[in-house]
Specification:
The chain is an alpha/beta fold and 297 residues long. It is 37% helix and 16% strand. The two termini are 22 Å apart.
Length: 297
C-alpha cells in the first residue's frame, strides 16, 4: 500500500496569521520533504477558502499551486484530491493537466469529483446544481478529459458540456494518459463512473472495517460492465480527526493495508509549521508495513 501526502495549502486554517510568502515557502518545503522521505505522491485540495467556516485566511488555488510544486520537486507524483468538475470548463481542465504533465516530466494524476461545498459555489458566483446534475457534469467531464488526452482533435456532445474539434497540444507525456482518479463515496453513480472511466477510485474517510464490503461493491460495479475488478484500485483519504483516542496512526495505516486499500492519502496538518512532522509520520508508515521509497535526504 502506497502513501500520499496532502500538502498544506491553507484550506483547514493551518496558515492563519501567516503571511502569503511565508505560507508558500512552507507549502513547498512540505512537498520537498515528502519527496525526500520517499512518499509516493503529493496532493492538493480543490477549494477556494477555509473550512469548516469561510475565513479571510490563505487558501492557495489548486491548479496554480500544484504547477508551482511541479517546478519545486523532481520525482514525487502530483495530483488533486479532487478537482470539482463544476468549477472549471472540462476541456480547459484537460488542457491544464496536459501542460502540467509536461512541466512535471510526466508526474501528474488527474483527480475528479462532483463537488459538494455549496458556500464556495455561492461565493464565487458558480451555480450549485442538484446532485443529479453535478454527477452528470462529472460524467461529461470524464468523457471530455479522456478524449482530450487521446491523439488528434476531440469532439463530444454531452448534456452539460460539448467540445468540437478541440485541439489539445501538447498532449501529456504519460501514455496512454495520466492516470484518472474518481473521488467519491456514492455507490450507485460515482462508483459506476469510476468503473467506466477511471484508473483509481478514491474514498473519503471510509473506515478500515467497512472497506472490505465497499471493495465488494466496487468489484460488482466493474463486473457489470465486463471490467476486471483488479484493474480498479481503491484508495482512501484519511482524516485524523476520526482517529480513535486509543488507536495509533501506525495501527490505522496497517488496518487500511490489511483491508485492501491500494493507497492512503492524508494531510499532516502540523507539518505546515514543522516539516519534520513528516519524518515522524514516515516512521508510523514504516511500522505499518506501507510501501515507501528510500529516503534521499
Amino acid at each position: 500500500m502506497r502513501v500520499g501526502i496532502i500538502v498544506p495549502q491553507g484550506w483547514t486554517g493551518e496558515y492563519q496569521g501567516v503571511d502569503p510568502a511565508t505560507a508558500w515557502r512552507r507549502t513547498v518545503a512540505v512537498a520537498r520533504r515528502a519527496e525526500a522521505l520517499g512518499f509516493e505522491s503529493a496532493w492538493l485540495f480543490d477549494h477556494f477558502h477555509t473550512t469548516p467556516e469561510p475565513t479571510d485566511t490563505i487558501t492557495f488555488e489548486a491548479y496554480t499551486a500544484l504547477t508551482g510544486l511541479a517546478g519545486a520537486t523532481e520525482r514525487i507524483r502530483l495530483g488533486h484530491i479532487v478537482t470539482c468538475a463544476a468549477y472549471r470548463n472540462p476541456a480547459l481542465v484537460a488542457k491544464m493537466i496536459s501542460t502540467m504533465d509536461v512541466i512535471s516530466g510526466g508526474r501528474m494524476q488527474v483527480g475528479l469529483g462532483a463537488g459538494w461545498k455549496r458556500e464556495e459555489f455561492d461565493a464565487y458566483g458558480i451555480e450549485f446544481p442538484s446532485t443529479h446534475d453535478r454527477l452528470g457534469r462529472l460524467r461529461d467531464t470524464l468523457e471530455i478529459v479522456g478524449r482530450m488526452f487521446e491523439p488528434g482533435r476531440a469532439t463530444y456532445a454531452g448534456t452539460y458540456a460539448d467540445i468540437k474539434e478541440a485541439i489539445n497540444e501538447p498532449k501529456p507525456l504519460q501514455r496512454p494518459r495520466p492516470p484518472i482518479m474518481v473521488g467519491g463515496n456514492g455507490r450507485e453513480v460515482t462508483w459506476r463512473l469510476a468503473a467506466r472511466f477511471a484508473d483509481e477510485l478514491n474514498l473519503d474517510a471510509t473506515p478500515p472495517d467497512e472497506l472490505p464490503e465497499a471493495l465488494e461493491v466496487v468489484a460488482a460495479r466493474c463486473t457489470e460492465i465486463g471490467r476486471d475488478p483488479a484493474s480498479l484500485p481503491v484508495s482512501v483519504h484519511i482524516w485524523w480527526e476520526h482517529l480513535d483516542a486509543a488507536e495509533s496512526r501506525s495501527a490505522l495505516i496497517a488496518a487500511y493495508r490489511e483491508a485492501g486499500a491500494s493507497r492512503v492519502m492524508t494531510l499532516i496538518r502540523s507539518a505546515a509549521m514543522d516539516p519534520d512532522e513528516l519524518d515522524r509520520f514516515r516512521e508510523d508508515c514504516e511500522a505499518a508495513g506501507a510501501e515507501l521509497e528510500p529516503r534521499s535526504a
